[in-house]
Design brief:
The chain has 328 residues and is an alpha/beta fold. It contains 11 helices and 17 strands.
Length: 328
Amino acid sequence: MAFLSLSEMMEKRNTQYYKSAKTKIHDDFLTYAQSKGGMLPRACAADFYARNLHDKEEGRTLRVLEIGVGAGNFALGFLGEVQRRDHRNKTDISERIAYTLADFSENMLANAEKKLSGAGFPNVETQIFDAAKAQIPDGISDSEFSQIYCNELFSDLPADVFVREGEKIYEVKYNDKMEDQEAQGVLNDVLGMALLNSLPKDYYLPINSIAAKSANAIAGLLSERGAFDIFDYGFYSAEYFAIPPHMWNKGVVREYGTQWTVDLNFIYMSASLNSQGFKASVEPQKDFAEKAFGEKLSLSEGPKGLDYSKKSGGIEEDDSFYHMRVVK
């Protein structure tokens, strides 16, 4: 059974996954962004509302772009929460939002648009956008957005994995059974090499170069006062390397349904964005949600997906989901 680079395997497996008529993506994943009535879209709405509440430019259109729309539950929760806050406070922020759904799948866009229209949000635009190509489509290339969201998207994009053993760098390759094999490899990436040489040896390190290129291109769509929020599964703190290498290495790549996903290397992602003149900061996703609501939250997992709860007694440990905010 042939061993290929992870990026080749992810492209192969995930193309098959998304094209298969048997794929039931929302049954295969438990996600914060797509949990019906979930806390994450409501937290994003609370944060967005607070940041735009005292906008001195009265009547300014607030353009929002969501890339990787899933079932449309994030947009539904976000727009509904902004609308509720408007009604409560007699403001007009929801009326000034121009929301664009972007995804590589026409079917997902159509279904999400239908769901939003049925819920009373008919003024939503759609745009075909393949984030793996790291190119901004013509339909939005000349636009500026007050807010951009990418929810659990970048960890699905093809990436490669490398490991440092002593002074040597190896590429980690995989077969169809997700068995790994180290091979001679070349990493032509200055940031990636710097990380491999600064972090502990013997640990598999994802280099999400396609995700980084895509994020840099997307960040270029921000308005001067805009924010680009990325929510995804991965690692940022060096504390993660406290577990033994063999345990770490087996968890870097995972399979859901038949799709492959890889840890998002937030250290690499933030360094890449900062090197291009953007300002990227990273925090645990739960910390972001707690700040947005102004109260402590606990983790919960149920049949409707991953979520946060305001009730005590939930799970308190780190969930490995992070929030990265990018601004100009």
